[in-house]
Amino acid sequence: MALNNGRGAAAIKSKLFITLAVLLTALMFSGCVCGPRKRGPQYTADGRLKIVFWHSMAGKLGEILNSMIDEYNKNNKDNIFVKTEFIGEYATLNQKIAAAVFAEIPPHIAQVYETWTVKLKREDAVVALDKYIDSKEVGIDKNDIVPALLKNVTMDDGKIYSMPFNKSIPALYYNKRLFEAVGLDPEKPPVTWNDFIEYGKKLTTIEHKGFLFNEYVNFEDYEKEHGAGSFPPRSLKPGHTVIWGNAFISDPWSFENYIFQNGGRILSEDGKKAVINSPEALVAADYLVDKMKKHRFAMRTSGREHQNEFIAERVAMIEGTIVSKVFMQSSLRFPFGMSTIPYNKINTSVLSGTNVAVFAYFSEAETLAAWKFIKWFTDTDQTARWGIDTTYMPVRKSAYETEMVKEAIKKDPNMKVALTMLEKIDFEPQVAAWFECRAILGKVTEALVLSSKSPKQILDEAVVEMNEVLELEEL
Question: Radius of gyration of the chain from Cα atoms?
């Protein structure tokens, strides 16, 4: 049901907003419920129209974002002032947006995932941007948006309710020194799943630090000495270290990539049924499990431990997002490489990251100002700069042809992974219930490596659970 002035909040039936009724009540009792239409536009002391932007860019990424926005505030000729507010991690941002929309006090702009946009669109809470995109006065060349990103933000009604913001794909990070130590070409990372298994087994060794050189003993040789199935402990006698071929986390995004790379899907074409127990998905599950349990070159970790192990040179290869480079690079004391992640049947990656949406509770002047900022942030030069500084994917095709991007790749070849426009990209399902389903998929990835159940049993049970969530969303 549409969310309209005066009666919208009372009519909302979406579970997203119902679950936050307690928070709304707290706002009401604190006297904070005063929708934007009642208070009118806000201005700075020097008379500039204030636009509030909620985001989740922490640390260095937040510093880069604020630096760019400070520049916009200083130089834009439209008398606009964008005020950024860091909300916290994405789960917190999601909750705060839901509560703010319920109370009709949202920001002008916020980061949103596609599944959030579906729910917000259902409540008429976000603005369709098409009239601004197509405008002769303030529009942009839609054909210049990277095709995959344009497809990603185009909803089922053919309209665009958000613009790409911090989009990323997965990347393989590998230690070139350890590649050389076991006889692998440091300029040739694994391309396929089979390559990755072969490399991982070679790279899983016991390193003995010598006076003049280091000695590496493969795990297979360790087994010959200690018996079949023997596994060296992480801590050996002084001077000896276990080097793992790979460390990974139980992450739904990784499993999604493997499924798509093997020709499978997450949901049916109509988005109403889960299909993660298909033959293609089962092969993907076996790949995830076998690198640890069968081939025994992968170590399961949690949080950012896999990155820490990679930094410490106790792991030769890890998967992460292209943006992981920003956080790790200053700590790496060895030559490293980046590539797209190995694939099986199809060379594809699942897109991650958020878009930015404009909320539908403001005057036309405020909405137009919000759009003008988004237009600036996603123009050729700014999106190229954002991509170079953060390694997020540039939004415009023309950005990839700029001298600054070409120079960035020349200076650091690892940037090529982030700054090369990909033709083949897949997306997470764009249905309202996807966040709940994604949580189930997260439990699946943990069960696959920890449970005694077979992969088929785990996936079959998950399909039942996901279908219940999808059916409930249809009610």
Answer: 24
Measured CA to CA, the distance from residue 409 to residue 411 in angstroms comes to: 5
Task: Kindly report, residue by residue over 85-102, the tens digit of the pLDDT.
Answer: 999 999 999 999 999 999
Residues 183, 236: one domain?
yes
Residues 291 and 180 in one domain: yes
* pLDDT tens, position by position, 30-54: 444 444 444 589 999 999 999 999 9
Domain extent, residue 296, equals 170-350+433-474
Minimal CA–CA distance to 88: which of 114, 115, 121, 110? 110
Give the largest Cα separation in the chain, rounded: 78
> Does the residue 71 lie in any domain?
yes
**In this structure, what token pair is assigned to residue 166?**
């911090």
Task: Identify the helix (H) or strand (E) that includes residue 474.
Answer: helix 455-474
- Rounded CA-CA distance 24/42 in Å is 23
CATH number at residue 158: 3.40.190.10
Question: Whose structure tokens read 């980061």?
Answer: 111
Give residue-wise pLDDT tens across range 240-284. 678 899 999 989 999 999 999 999 999 999 999 999 999 999 999
- At 206, the pLDDT band (50, 70, 90 cuts) reads confident
Same domain? For 306 and 443 the reply is yes
d(CA 448, CA 424): 28
Same domain, 77 and 176: no
pTM of the entire predicted model: 0.86
Q: How far apart, in whole angstroms, are the C-alpha atoms of residue 397 and residue 147?
A: 8
CA distance 171 to 442: 20
Tokens of 21: 């009724």
In terms of residues, how long is the chain? 475
Is residue 122 within a helix (H) or strand (E), and if so which, with residue range? helix 114-122
Nearest one of 242, 319, 323, 321 to 288, comparing CA atoms: 319
Q: CA 239, CA 261: separation in Å to the nearest integer?
A: 40
